[in-house]
Structure formats: structure tokens, C-alpha cells
Amino acid sequence: MEKQHNLSKNQKIIFDLIDKSPEPLKAYSILFNVQKKGINAPLQVYRALDKLVEIGKIHKIESRNAFIACQNSSCQISKATAFSICESCEKVSEINNSKLSKYLSNFEDDSGMRYNKYNLEFFGLCKKCKSK
Amino acid sequence: MEKQHNLSKNQKIIFDLIDKSPEPLKAYSILFNVQKKGINAPLQVYRALDKLVEIGKIHKIESRNAFIACQNSSCQISKATAFSICESCEKVSEINNSKLSKYLSNFEDDSGMRYNKYNLEFFGLCKKCKSK
DNA sequence: TAACACTATGTAATAATATAACATTTTTAA
DNA sequence: TTAAAAATGTTATATTATTACATAGTGTTA
Known about the structure:
DNA-binding; two-stranded antiparallel sheet; alpha+beta; homodimer; 3-stranded mixed beta sheet
């Protein structure tokens, strides 16, 4: 059973915005969009983002400094994330492939070291952009 | 045969600094360190970094906004990078594992999409930190 | 070698991303 | 019911990165 996280007011506002966005959102774009809801300062946004990342409700796309909602119902894999990024239209999707996640979670480097967390970003052209 | 890249003056200065550093360097720390060599502005650093990344002499560690020299003599894999990052001491190593790179380069997602580039960052504790 | 394209440089200003520090309030759990 | 933990509010500032514009060097090729 997964731990239930009751989001606080700011966390809820910010999660809802990210969750309904079709594309990753940047912190200051989030800030701009929630100012009418009384969130006025960058730090309020970053604190909510930090928490949401920590509990796995959202992920940060490191190469884009942007945030997307977790696409996996269970949200169990915040320590094992993989994304597909279109270099043309910037569409980002979370990859949910059990073979891949198994392979990476069990990966052992040449020195025998194991890892408790990874983030993988794939780049290419999405179908739409490829056919143009 | 690999294309020969003759580094320009600024590129050489900045590459040499990164190459002899035991840890990833951040852009403004690089700037600070090369000011005695006549590089005075952030943009001069970022331009050199961009070029060095483009030709594969260095890589950006996205989760750290920092840069390390490519550890692979051939520098062929700037489009297929994997790193090990210690969450305690922040030591970063490039992972050069042909099985892993083959697996990821050939990875096909559930929709059949292939990728021409990826970046993977593993997190954990390095040997030294684990034994503490 | 003149003309051209291309790459790199220099400089100032500013945009975009993120955190520090401090005071207060709300929520949770013992 | 109170003490600890989490969240909020606010100001200021630190850090990371780019825009815009002017100039200089390098390599090709006509």
C-alpha cells in the first residue's frame, strides 16, 4: 500500500496546473499562472515543486528545467524515470516500460556499483515531426 | 575516421581547465578560473562550452548544471551518455559500458519510436561514501 | 589574392532559474 | 493541548543562461 499524501493548498494548486498541462511547465510560467490564486513569489512555487517531486506526483525534466505530472497511476517510480523528448516540437512523454526499468534498476557498473535512482532522457523526433 | 576539431583559443583554455578537474565544473566557476587568461564574460564561457559539448569533448551533467570532460578516448558517444553520480560526495563518473549503450541505443518504445540520442544519470553512493 | 562564408571573439545588458534568511501559521500526532 | 513538523508569506539575492550588436580571425574558392 502506498502512502497517501494530502496535498496542501499551494501544492494542490500547482499540481492541478501541471497535471492538466499537455506540456512540461517551467517554474516561472507556473508562477505567472497561479498569481491570481494568491501565490506571489518564486519560492512558494519552488517549495511546492520540491515537495511534489519528492512524493513522485511530478517529475523534473532536467534538460528542460520543466515539470510534468507523473503518468504512472501508481507513482511508484519517481526514483526510476525515463522520458521521450521530441527535439522539434518539445513534446515530452514519460516512458513506462517494465523491461527498461528492470534493466536499469538492476544495472551494475563495471566496478560492481548499484544505484538506487536514475533518470533517463531520450531525444529524437516524435511521429508527427518525423512525418513532416 | 573521426573529424579533427582544432579548438580555438577560448575553447582550448576552457577545455584544459575542465579536463584536468577531478570534478564537474560549473560555468561561473570556470569563468572565475579563466579570468586571468582574459576571458571576462559569461557568454565567452557559454559559447566555448556549447561548442565543446557539440563536438563531444565535454558533457553536461544536467542534474548538476556542470560540465566534465569526455572520458572515452574516442569521444564518439556524445549522443549516448551515462553517468554515475554520488549523492553524498557528488563524485561523477562517466559510465562506459557497451552492453548498456547498445541496449539504450537500440531501445524502442511501445509505440515503436527510436531515438538518436539519450542521457542517463544514475544516483547512489560511491564506494567511499557507502563505507562511511 | 580578393571576395565570401563561416567561425570565433568582445562587451554590455538583461532574462531566466533558483535559493537564503527570517517571521508566522497550520497541521499532525503524541 | 501542546509540542514537533510541515507549510506559508515576504524580501532580497544568488546562480545560470541568453539577446543584441559590433568586430576580428580562418578557411575556401574563384
